[in-house]
Design goal:
Helices cover 35% and strands 28% of the residues. The protein has five helices and twelve strands. Strands 10-1-2-11-12 form a five-stranded antiparallel beta sheet, covered by helices on one side. It starts with a strand and ends with a helix.
C-alpha cells in the first residue's frame, strides 16, 4: 500500500508521497509514486499513485507514451489538453482502461487491481486544480471546503489535516502539515515507508518550485517527528478530566 496527499491552497499546491510497495512481508520494495510532467512557465501536471503497482505503472507508461507521441492530440495527451479538467478525464479514462485489461487477465487469481491517483497542476492562464481519480476512472475535485485529497492509507494522517489546513494556509505550514500527516501514518502502518517525495508548486509558476526526497536518515524530518511526539505528549498531560 502507500500514502499520498495533496493540498490545494491560495498560495499554491503541496504534494507528498511515500515509496513503499509490498506483496507480502517478505517482498518489500521501493517505487516512486510521484510523477511530474512540466513545460516550465506553460504547464505542470503532477500525478500521485496508490494501489496495484501493475495498474499504476502501466497507466503511467501509457500516459507518458501519449505525451511523447509526435502525433498526439489534445484529446489524448495531458501536455496538450486545453484544461486541467480534460487532463483529469484523460488520466481517468487511461486508468479505467488499464484496470479493465488487467482485471480480465487476473480474474482467476483473485488479485486486487484497484488503484487510484491524485492529479494536480496548472496551465498558463488557468486556475490551479487538483483531482482524486477513482479506480473506475471517475473523479472528484478539491475545493475551498475540502482543500486536500488523500489516497492509500489515509486515515492515520487525516486528523491533523482536518484541524490545521485551510485555503489560506501558507506553503511553509502546509509542508509541515503533510510531513506530520505522513509521520503519523508511518508510525501506525507498516505498509507505508520511506523515502518520501515532497513537491511544492507555487501559484502561477506552472512548474515545480521545490522538490525534495526525504531519506530515512533525514535529520530535519527526524527533529520534526520528535517535536510532534513531544507536543502530543505534553498536550495530553495538560488535559484534565
Amino acid at each position: 500500500m502507500t500514502y499520498c496527499v495533496g493540498l490545494l491552497l491560495d498560495a499554491g499546491m503541496v504534494l507528498l508521497s511515500d515509496t513503499r510497495t509490498n506483496a507480502g512481508v517478505d517482498n518489500i520494495a521501493i517505487y516512486r509514486k510521484m510523477f511530474v510532467f512540466e513545460e516550465p512557465g506553460e504547464r505542470v501536471v503532477t500525478i500521485l499513485t496508490a494501489g496495484s503497482l501493475s495498474v499504476t505503472q502501466t497507466t503511467m507508461a501509457r500516459l507518458r507514451e501519449a505525451v511523447d507521441d509526435p502525433d498526439a492530440t489534445p484529446s489524448d495527451s495531458i501536455m496538450l489538453a486545453p484544461t486541467m479538467l480534460k487532463v483529469a478525464e484523460i488520466v481517468g479514462d487511461t486508468l479505467a482502461s488499464v484496470r479493465q485489461d488487467i482485471d480480465a487477465r487476473m480474474e482467476a487469481s483473485k488479485v486486487s487491481t484497484s488503484a487510484s491517483m491524485i492529479v494536480a497542476g496548472q496551465r498558463k492562464g488557468g486556475a490551479m486544480r487538483m483531482f482524486l481519480i477513482y479506480p473506475e476512472g471517475n473523479f472528484i475535485e478539491a475545493t475551498e471546503d475540502t482543500p486536500f485529497l488523500q489516497i492509500g492509507e489515509h486515515k492515520y494522517g487525516k486528523p491533523i489535516l482536518d484541524r490545521v489546513v485551510r485555503p489560506d494556509t501558507s506553503l511553509e505550514d502546509a509542508q509541515k502539515a503533510v510531513l506530520l500527516s505522513m509521520d503519523s501514518t508511518l508510525r501506525s502502518n507498516l505498509s507505508v515507508g520511506m523515502p518520501l517525495d515532497l513537491a511544492v508548486i507555487e501559484k502561477d509558476d506552472c512548474k515545480v518550485t521545490m522538490r525534495r526526497r526525504i531519506e530515512k536518515e533525514d535529520a530535519q524530518f527526524a527533529r520534526m517527528s520528535h517535536a510532534w511526539s513531544e507536543a502530543l505528549r505534553d498536550g495530553f498531560t495538560r488535559i484534565a478530566l
